[in-house]
Amino acid sequence: MTILERINPLSVAKISALFGIFPGIIFGIFAMFLGLMMRYSNPLILISLLICGFVLGIVCGVIYGLVVSLLYNFSSGVVGGIKFEMQKRGKEKGAFALNSIDPVSYGRIEAISIAVVLVVTVVLILLVNAIFNTGISVALIAGFGVLGIVLGALVGFVAGWLNGYFYNFIALKIEAVQFTLASGKGSFSNILQYVDYMSYAKVNAGLIALWSVISLVIRVVLVLLLILFVGSKTTYLGGTTIIFGVFGGLFGILTGFVISIIMAIVYNMFAKRIGGIQVNLK
Predict the structure, then answer these.
(1) I need a labelling partner for 176 at 20 to 30 A (CA). Which of 56, 62, 94, 136 fits?
(2) CA-CA distance, 66 to 249, in Å (whole number)?
(3) What does the DSSP 8-state code read for residue 8?
(4) Maximum Cα interatomic distance, the chain, rounded to a whole number of Å
(5) Dihedral over Cα of 184, 186, 189, 191: its sign
């Protein structure tokens, strides 16, 4: 099996900044409309709000890319990277298909990443508690913090394991994600040069569909429990909840498919010009 050992944080941040442009435009337009609602008629103020929202989207993209890749690198150093099997595809140089992902290694990465985020959160809460002297017991915060970290890591492992298992099912029954790798630079062995947009969209839509089924099953169980313990008066509410779950899942599948196509096309377009995500494979 191949192991994804490390990801270059700067290469991820660069790509994330580009993807941040789109929500940045939305933030900017939203901020401008807020300015209009607050009766700011000065064009300079409105343009400034638009620019601030745009810049905010890019900054958030950079931060997100750095945090996610640094978390992955740390987690990989602790429990090892995600293991996967890729198969050479056609005669094109560097063309592969991601045939399968090891669910356990995926789950470990998710567990450690969530645990790290929760540890930092608990430390920040303790600092705020000490600085502002809120009167909340340190032992209470620490106790709930440890419980939250353990539960968060457990949920992260299960979610990661399921994602890996679901991916393998989709890759086997529908199609595996196809991509092209180029030789890397420095300490990073490879560059993700190209992602096949259709296979990527199919897999993402499939993942959303499977998670939607799980969500729907949970909804049905909760509705049945509600009817059992509260009474038939809750039937209408329960039925409405299930219907919304069905249509919400269908909407998620459709939007996930379309957004995945757009993301892959944008990634391929910019990866050629500014370089793709750099990784170290073993």
Answers:
(1) 62
(2) 31
(3) -
(4) 67
(5) negative
Return the SS3 of 76: helix
Residues 6+ apart with CB under 8 A from 210: 166, 169, 170
Query: DSSP class of residue 135?
Result: -
Average pLDDT over residues 34-49: 71
Report pLDDT digits (tens) over 10-34.
Answer: 999 999 988 888 877 787 777 777 7
**Rounded Cα distance, 272 and 268, in Å:** 6
* Domain residue extents for the chain: 1-80, 101-173, 179-282
Query: Cα–Cα distance between 103 and 167 in angstroms, integer?
Result: 9
DSSP assignments along 18-51, one per residue:
HHTHHHHHHHHHHHHHHHHHTT---HHHHHHHHH
Instruction: Determine the angle formed by the axes of helices 235-274 and 197-230, rounding to 10 degrees.
Output: 160
